Amino acid sequence: HAVQYFYEPFLEAFDPELRKQLGVWYTPPEIVQYQVARVDAALREELDIPDGLADPRVFVLDPCCGTGAYLVEVLRKIEKTLKEEKGEGDALNAEAIKEAAQKRVFGFEIMPAPFVVAHLQMGLLLQNLAAPLDDSKSERAGIFLTNALTGWNFTGENAKLAQWPELEAERKGAGNVKQEKPILVILGNPPYNAYAGIS
Predict the structure, then answer these.
(1) Residue 98: how many CB atoms within 10 A of its CB?
(2) pTM of the entire predicted model
(3) Predicted pLDDT of residue 195
(4) Fewer CB within 10 Å: N-end or C-end of the chain?
């Protein structure tokens, strides 16, 4: 978890006011694990989806994903379900998790530094599962550099980004999620930390 929690203390030391403005409050791993487990249970018990987050019909979005803690935990939960409940072989599991990371578990992040760390975390997870993303096939995790609050109705080209093809690719990828994916689960950091230490 070390890399995931680097950015918050760095900003606290470097520019505490900017940290507050940007809302950089990373959730402790125990809270992330609990929330993901609760979502999985709700899918099973309340929406009659027996495999929970592992069901291929379940599309997930963390709209402010930071360094990707929730996305990684969702994939870990999927792996646990496939291994313990479905009894699938490791190779099949790894491919299913890789597919989920690319096509149905999405994250949006507006700040470049945590966005890069989120991609790093997802890449490492898939590498550890022996299902690494293949650059030569343009495989990537479904994490996009975007503002989660805008672009939900916009389609077409953005002329302002003509000179920045990488940013245009991010906008297009995020737009595809915003306009076309049947998102069922939205999860992420609750604002409880904003009240910590207030007297």
Answers:
(1) 22
(2) 0.79
(3) 44
(4) C
